[in-house]
Amino acid sequence: MTHLKPETMGQQFGRRSWAEPWKIKMVEPLRMISREERERALVEAGYNTFLLRSDDVYIDLLTDSGTSAMSDRQWAGMMLGDEAYAGSRNFYHLEGAVQRHYGFRHVLPTHQGRGAEHLISQVAIKPGQFVPGNMYFTTTRLHQELAGGQFVDVIIDEAHDPQDLHPFKGDVDLAKLGALIERVGAGQIAYVSLAGTVNMAGGQPVSMANLRALRELCISHGIRLFLDATRLVENAFFIQEQEAGFAERSIAEIVLEFCSYADGAWMSAKKDNLVNIGGWLAVNDDELFEELRNLIVVYEGLHTYGGLAGRDMEALAIGIEESMQDDHVRSRIGQVRYLGELLTDWGIPIVQPVGGHAIFLDARRFYAHLVQDEFPAQTLAAELYLDSGIRSMERGIASAGRDAKTGDHNRPKLELTRLTIPRRVYTQAHMDVVAESVKAVHDERESTRGLRMTYEPKYLRFFQARFERL
Ligand code: P70
Fold it and tell me: Which pLDDT band, with edges at 50, 70 and 90, does 18 fall under?
């Protein structure tokens, strides 16, 4: 065997290395069970990674949602929880942090993102209206539908092609949106629902130029624009890096400008904002706020806690500040990219360019011999778990659910398995282990069989569906 000279990560890519802007103060042991035990656990979970016990998982890349490590400052903030039913001081800290960093006037805490989605959908959608958006997200679309709305995908076509290298695959196709307005009339459009970054497209960003043009189109038709701000900080990183005129602007400044073009935003704070639970909803319009503030007491709690404990709101207020720091965002996305670079170099099909929060394996090309109805992405998630105890998530035909009218499967172009990287949790060595496991599963791909669904729940079926091997 030839002995290769070891090189650091930076040297391998011809640059000086950088490192995470933190050190580790507390550790949580990981456990790896045997292959036989994993086989048993997988059958018991009906080949659905959502149904595995986390004790049976080695490296958990199911989601970046609520799985981040909090900082010492956030933990200290937890001890300063003011658990008053009404008017908790922590609420005012949270309100101030959202106003300062996202720029909206009125702020409501919610138990998590879908709590906020529910409220905005109920208040801002009239039955029969359309809600155009830059690709669907599962919970977002469901709440829009439950409010009587109909989601219309107006993302650029490039977003549906995992190999297209467009740097802003989250952009809205203004011609598609224009055609919809023409067809149904501006009055039949509840609002434009814009996510930055776009989760289902692979964590792909929206450019500021596209948003500015979109804003103009909306204003000219009197249509409101609401943001899904869940991973907006990560979107700002791509604008800073890739869009002309933003290299010298901070992440915080870019986020603030982005939000200035919107009428409000909902947030799953479990992602960008570095907390284990929480969300918020923020709007500028006084009347809209009035309605939301009234509805929140029915579903979430009083408007100064919205389903959160005082300590949760304090951790969130601090998490918002920390999430805007440039060196934090660079190392977070840098880690995702590192895993992406390894897999790309080894010829493993992934969504390109690599997005903000995850590597999305392209299960269609990975398992070219499986048809979509054999759940290639679900199969890949199962095989990765079997190989190494790594947990990933299906983002393909199972996630897409059924057509509300015809009852047939929605068959999305993207059939992906998501390796989602929690923030501030795993090291580069963990990424190496993950990459090698993906490679091992890839090497065995030709002998892999697909799955059949044996149990299908009515709502968001991917969470609880069961499968068996074909
Ligand atoms: C994920 C999580 C949540 C999410 C999101 C965007 C862009 C809203 C929400 C809802 C959790 C998840 C949710 C549904 C299916 C699978 C996983 N995404 N908007 O892992 O927020 O979960 O706080 O209610 O990504 O991507 P919340």
Answer: confident
Q: What's the pLDDT band for 369 if we cut at 50, 70, 90?
A: very high
114 is catalytic: no
Q: How many residues does the chain have?
A: 470
Residue 305 burial (10 A CB sphere; 0-12, 13-18, 19+): buried
Asked if 233 and 323 count as a contact pair (C-beta separation under 8 A), the reply is yes
Substitution site in 65, 110, 141, 275 for ligand 1 pocket (most atoms within 8 Å of beta carbon): 65
pLDDT digit string, tens, across residues 350-364: 999 999 999 999 999
Cα-Cα-Cα-Cα dihedral sign, residues 103, 109, 110, 111? positive
For residues 373 and 384, give the distance between their C-alpha atoms in angstroms, rounded to a whole number.
Answer: 20
Q: How far apart are CA 188 and CA 175, in angstroms?
A: 17
3-state secondary structure of 464: coil
Backbone phi, psi, residue 280, to 5°: -155, 165
Q: Are 255 and 221 in contact (CB under 8 A)?
A: no
Burial of 276 (0-12, 13-18, 19+ CB in 10 A): middle
What does the mean pLDDT of the chain come to? 97
Interatomic CA distance for residues 144 and 154, integer angstroms: 15
- Torsion region of 87: left, alpha or beta (phi above 0 gives left; psi -120 to 50 gives alpha): left
How confident is the model over 27-65, as pLDDT tens digits? Answer: 999 999 999 999 999 999 999 999 999 999 999 999 999
* DSSP string across 408-431: SBP--S--EEEEE--TT---HHHH
pLDDT digits (tens, 9 = 90+) for 199-241: 999 999 999 999 999 999 999 999 999 999 999 999 999 999 9
DSSP-assigned letter for residue 135? S
Residues touching ligand 1 (Cβ under 6 Å) are 63, 65, 112-114, 137-140, 195, 199, 228, 230, 268, 270, 279
The catalytic position among 47, 289, 462, 467 is 462
> Which atom of ligand 1 lies at the shortest distance from residue 63's CA?
20
Q: CA nearest 420: which of 357, 327, 353, 462?
A: 357
pTM over the 0.85 mark: yes
